[in-house]
Amino acid sequence: MTKALLGIDVGTSGTKVALFGVGGELLASHIGEYPLYQPENGWAEQEPTDWWRASVDGVRAVLAKAGGVEVCGIGLSGQMHGLVMLDKDGEALRPSIIWCDQRTESETEDMCRILGRDRIIEITANAPMTGFTAAKILWVKKHEPALYEKCVHILLPKDYIRYKLTGEFATEVSDASGMQLMDVAKREWSPEVCDKLGIDMGLLAKMHESQDVTGLTSAACAEQTGLPAGIPVVGGAGDNPAAAVGTGVVVQGKAFTTIGSSAVVYAVSDEVRIDMAGRVHALCASVPGKWTVMSCTQAAGLSVQWLRNNVCTEEIREAEAAGIDPYILMDRLAAEAPIGSDRLLFLPYLMGERSPHPDPDCRGVFFGLSGVHGRANLIRAVREGVAFSQLECVEVFREMGVPVGDMMVTGGGAKSPLWRQMLADLYGCPVSVPASDEGAALGAAILAGVGTGVYNNLPEACGQLIGKGDTTMPDEASGMAYAPYFELYKQLYLSLKADFKTLAGIGR
Asked: For 96, phi and psi rounded to 5 degrees?
């Protein structure tokens, strides 16, 4: 019987379940989709039961496709920062408030008043963030006090799946360090932060390293999924730390950019490096004894998706007729526009922003729009705006002394040759796609392999299993052509910052 490792990745648009052989080969995969709810402007919620249903369907599907496998271990990955609140019976008390939700500006101000902004950064390695979990807990405590009183367990999205698999309430350092309740340098919950914010540490899950075994699949799980009971489930990692493992970014000097719904630049560091300005995040790595610096652009692929749904109906029709993805046609059209898109810039702030401008009130902007611009300009400007955002974050990394010279690119955006070339030209270094695009699911499976003794350690496992695919080389002339547009792009946020606040206050 073939030995296999299972990776479950709880994403924003769907949950991916992937089964890998111990040599890293993909045996079977399945993606189950579910909705995102926005009951008010800037809010974003999902139902934890949808994640579990997609996980169950995915596990059953991959076991059926692969046939005759022995699952040696299970690793989990998932969207970070989401708030899952369970009652005494383990039932979700409300929909999860997920990573891109922006309702908690008042709560972040409360955190600064109670603890002091600098002290929060010193302990949690991050400035108070609307997207992080701590502020969401405070929001529920303030606005839904009766519901909060019923809360017995607070979990992150992937850790809810762990609970459903094993019955254990556990988490691990990479995902938990994005809750803003941890002492990131010590890799443990912070009594000072929890006490001063009035959050009972007893609600929080037990902390583990990413490769630690946290529980075994239960009889109830076996009945629902078809997995045998007793399979080890390891800590796993947040989606980006897991993607780092899945792309081989487990040592200092390596980095990756992922462009999905959001966009992230992620680099590994041998020590904690904190940006006291709060422009980027420092988290525990999924590698024991290492940390990361990470940025997040809230609406990367979301910006392109918004454009597709609202502007590119013609491309959607043509793609349906040709049986191809509309993004392919959009990419071809964008390539017809020049660098700078005929003096049209886009600020990708459709969901507020996190890096390098932690500002829930900023909003998307087309700057320079004129009668000469068509869909090609709009599409290229959106792609360039997202790419400019990534370079702005990489500049912060380099300022902090975090080396970035070996860049992988993953996610749906990595399928775009135009986007890859933009990133290479802007970063000034080669940009490679991984030989396998399984990303976070593969990373979770590798962590399971290390935790169960299939592999000796993460660097060795990644060296054996992870390879590079196509590499895009930077074009120096193009990099120089982008430079004045990038400088203007950076200035636009500063020029509009006060206006964003004014706009947010209208009608409140």
From this structure: -70, 135
Query: Where do the H-state alpha helices sit in 202-272?
Result: 219-225, 239-246
Q: Which residue has the higher pLDDT, 258 or 386?
A: 386
Q: Tell me which DSSP letter residue 205 carries.
A: P
- pTM for the full predicted model: 0.85
Does the N-terminal peptide bond of residue 228 adopt cis geometry, omega within 30 degrees of 0? no
Distance (Å, rounded) from C-alpha 255 to C-alpha 192?
32
Amino acid identity of residue 432, one-letter, is S
Name which of 159, 161, 151 is nearest 205 in CA terms.
159
Q: Is 325 a catalytic residue?
A: no
Q: Read off the DSSP letter of residue 275.
A: -
CA–CA dist 95, 140 (Å, integer): 11
Q: What is the total residue count of the chain?
A: 508
Q: Are 280 and 356 in contact (CB under 8 A)?
A: yes
The pLDDT tens digits for 140-149 are 999 999 999 9
Burial class from Cβ neighbours inside 10 Å (0-12, 13-18, 19+) for residue 216 reads: middle
Catalytic residue among 50, 159, 212, 239: 239
Contacts of 119 (CB under 8 A, 6+ apart): none
Q: Which two tokens stand for residue 215?
A: 């529980």
The span from the CA of 443 to the CA of 77, in Å, is 8
> Which stretches does DSSP call E strand in 308-405?
345-347, 365-367
Q: What are 264-307's pLDDT values in tens digits?
A: 999 999 999 999 998 999 999 999 999 999 999 999 999 999 99
Residue with tokens 């309430």: 169
Q: How many CB atoms lie within 10 A of CB 252?
A: 16
Residue 154 is encoded by which pair of tokens?
């607070």
Which residues contact residue 128 at a Cβ distance below 8 angstroms, ignoring those fewer than 6 apart? 108, 109, 111, 112, 117, 120, 134, 135, 180
